[in-house]
Design goal:
16% helix, 17 strands, alpha+beta, four-stranded antiparallel β-sheet, seven-stranded antiparallel β-sheet
Length: 333
């Protein structure tokens, strides 16, 4: 198994589940960033994510652990841990153990997904997961779209790729004709890499003679670090998407993709019908075409870029380097 040359422990927000996968009282085992983890939901509805092992004698909390009220209970000796990873009860003692704490991760539940903040040095979050609707400022809400989970989603675990591949795809105008078989080449109208959240927009023209005033389709994307991206498509099929790539270990990542399809006028159904399913399947099919490339790609550094590609790729790679640990940033520069 080949190890991607890019560091697999970047700083940022990463999706570890869809919110509906973790019901109240449930304990969900998983592995990310080379660590065994558990996600669990309190009975009041709050989600927490821990390293998986009890600090008492090391039992894995995902195998027999359960939720009581707002605490996670170890299956081995019944020690209870709150959402911050602090011991709050030892059932056979009068006082908890205040000196030990299970590593907990900052968690945000947004856009139908559960996100954790990962930073190898333990720094707190310094940017946010963007809201799929508020971030684009067009007044639309979730009520304007069909519910995406679970019907309009894709999950591909354990692929040999890297989160940065997805971000680089966003500035790659030339692949559209060859990977997606489109009759157009997008024209980028915005490259903003000035902070940890970047913005990339493009318009679509089907004809070399079409002027900017005649263009009525395009895509806007917001990238919060390397693990969290949201897109809005306009002028074609009204959709919003959320690709998310999360490192599992030094070799592989899990890929999730969520698609919101705009409702037909007057359709307020609670489920994705035949129209919405057909549109979502088409969008997912296009994303799968990219995955087929990424899963077998070798990261080229430096790449052999054409003149037209140079600006976008160079800017994105310089932006991406800020999310890697210090020593890795030096190696990439």
């Amino acid at each position: 198994m080949a190890k991607p040359p890019l560091p697999m422990q970047p700083t940022g927000w990463f999706q570890v589940a869809w919110g509906s996968e973790i019901s109240a009282g449930a304990v969900h085992s998983m592995k990310y960033f080379g660590r065994e983890m558990v996600a669990w939901r309190t009975h009041s509805g709050q989600v927490a994510v821990f390293d998986a092992y009890c600090e008492h004698l090391g039992a894995h909390l995902g195998y027999g652990g359960h939720v009581e009220g707002e605490n996670l209970v170890c299956p081995f000796h019944g020690w209870e841990w709150n959402r911050e990873g602090r011991n709050v009860c030892i059932p056979y003692e009068t006082h908890p153990n205040k000196g030990r704490r299970i590593r907990s991760y900052p968690v945000v539940e947004r856009n139908e997904a559960v996100w954790i903040w990962f930073d190898i040095d333990g720094r707190p979050p310094y940017f946010e997961v963007p809201d799929l609707f508020m971030a684009f400022g067009d007044g639309k809400t979730a009520a304007d779209y069909y519910p995406p989970v679970p019907t309009a989603t894709l999950y591909r675990p354990g692929l040999e790729l890297h989160p940065q591949y997805v971000l680089e795809n966003g500035v790659d105008f030339a692949h559209f004709k060859f990977v997606h078989k489109t009759p157009f080449v997008p024209e980028f109208t915005r490259h903003d890499f000035s902070g940890p959240v970047s913005y990339v927009d493009f318009t679509i023209a089907f004809d070399a003679g079409v002027t900017q005033d005649d263009v009525h389709s395009g895509v806007e994307s917001i990238n919060a670090g390397l693990g969290c991206s949201i897109t809005k498509s306009w002028g074609m099929v009204d959709n919003r998407t959320m690709p998310a790539v999360t490192p599992v270990d030094e070799h592989t990542c899990d890929v999730r993709f969520t698609v919101w399809i705009g409702r037909k006028p007057g359709d307020d159904s609670l489920e994705l019908g035949p129209y919405g399913k057909a549109m979502a399947d088409y969008v997912i099919e296009q994303f799968e075409a990219d995955i087929r490339i990424w899963a077998h790609q070798r990261y080229s550094d430096p790449p052999a870029l054409s003149r037209k590609e140079f600006e976008g790729f160079t800017a994105l790679r310089a932006w991406a380097s800020q999310f890697y640990p210090t020593e890795d940033r030096k190696a990439l520069s």
